[in-house]
Write a structure and sequence with these properties.
alpha/beta; two-stranded antiparallel ribbon; 12 helices; 48% helix; elongated
């Protein structure tokens, strides 16, 4: 599903809302019920049920419980997971943060907000260092090299925002980050030797944090499961319970919002991790590349 906002009056589609609505839709269809029956159980309109299933409106806990009862969902763990997802979506809709200071980066606002809420991120990158681990000079050089900016002055707010994101790694309740990158990302000379040397040094510094794990997939592995695309898995609770996946392509930003999609990406991530160098050996490779610059 694409990264878009669908508005109708006060309704706004959100990633977490679409994840929750999609699960409720599958539950309803699995027991052969139509939207009017769900609306009757909620004493609401069919239009409201349709908006709920499309992720356009926040969903109250009593409505979650009523629908689970109607659909024959008795497993408390499942109900609890849906309640937590609904709460996360409501919190997301109310969230106001530093990203509001950057209207020129509106397309990234949804990701910024979700990253601020996440408890863990697993990132797989093919060709560059993940944003949460970049230096400002490296981020600036990437932006210049991409040629995506009509006005060169717009690059500085982009760099500032990237640096603001990194405060999650040093906050009172820090984000857990597990980043895996291909060796090519370490050898790509972004910004020149000095910029790259400093960037590799930053990577080594960040791995000293207990909640940051960095691995490198070396060239010698050859073909591997992550060759088709880079992706990021954001977790908002226990692993697998509240996960969404973001994949960037040249044309569009994609969100994979269903539980099966998230699990497939986690499986790929785990296979990449098993093929990658351990943290200690990854650090040795990073340091050797840095010393060679």
């Amino acid at each position: 599903m694409t990264d878009r906002r669908a508005s109708r009056g006060a309704t706004v589609s959100t990633v977490l809302g679409r994840r929750l609505g999609g699960e409720l839709l599958r539950m309803r269809e699995a027991c052969g019920l139509r939207q009017p029956r769900a609306a009757e159980a909620l004493t609401s309109s069919v239009a409201k049920v349709a908006k709920m299933e499309r992720g356009l409106v926040p969903i109250r806990d009593p409505d979650i419980r009523a629908l689970c009862h109607l659909y024959g969902v008795r497993d408390e763990a499942t109900v609890d997971r849906l309640l937590k997802l609904a709460k996360a979506d409501r919190d997301r809709r109310k969230a106001k943060g530093w990203w509001d200071q950057y209207p020129q980066l509106e397309a990234m606002a949804e990701y910024f907000a979700l990253e601020e809420m996440a408890v863990q991120i697993r990132a797989w990158e093919l060709s560059f260092v993940p944003g949460l681990l970049q230096t400002s000079d490296y981020a600036r050089a990437l932006a210049v090299g991409n040629h995506d900016w009509d006005d060169i002055e717009e690059i500085e707010p982009f760099v500032e925002a990237r640096m603001r994101r990194q405060t999650r790694l040093t906050s009172e309740h820090p984000l857990r980050l597990w980043a895996i990158m291909h060796e090519a990302a370490l050898r790509q000379l972004v910004g020149g030797r000095d910029v790259m040397r400093a960037q590799l040094g930053r990577l080594l510094e960040m791995t000293e944090l207990p909640h940051v794990r960095v691995q490198v997939l070396p060239y010698r592995v050859g073909a591997h499961p992550g060759m088709t695309s880079a992706f990021t898995v954001l977790s908002f609770g226990e692993p697998g319970a509240l996960d969404v996946v973001r994949t960037d392509t040249l044309a569009v930003k994609l969100w994979s919002e269903s539980e099966p999609d998230a699990q497939r990406h986690l499986d790929v991530f785990d296979r990449i991790a098993r093929l990658s160098l351990a943290q200690h050996d990854s650090n040795k490779l990073i340091d050797n590349i840095r010393k060679g610059l």
